[in-house]
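Module 6 notes. Inverse folding takes a fixed backbone as the condition and produces residue identities as the prediction. Think of it as a translation problem where the source language is geometry and the target language is the twenty amino acids. Below is one complete input and output pair. Work through it position by position during the lab.
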């Protein structure tokens, strides 16, 4: 039973790392978009909003991961 719990925790740590990497990639994409222009056009605003929505989904997954 202890071995199974350790395996589950190890799997959760791997998933946590993957989700954090994806969140960081999205943050970098947002930063790149914002760095390219002083004022965002509508397409850029939509793209940033979509990326931020995806970040929120990841954050909810991270929150639920260790419940």
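Target side of the pair, the amino acids:
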């Amino acid at each position: 039973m202890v071995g199974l719990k350790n395996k589950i925790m190890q799997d959760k740590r791997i998933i946590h790392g993957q989700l954090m990497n994806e969140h960081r990639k999205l943050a970098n994409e947002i930063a790149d978009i914002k760095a390219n222009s002083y004022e965002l056009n509508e397409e850029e605003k939509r793209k940033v909003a979509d990326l931020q929505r995806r970040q929120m989904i990841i954050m909810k997954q991270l929150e639920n991961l260790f419940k």
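Reference fact for the lab report: Helices lie at 2-36, 42-65.
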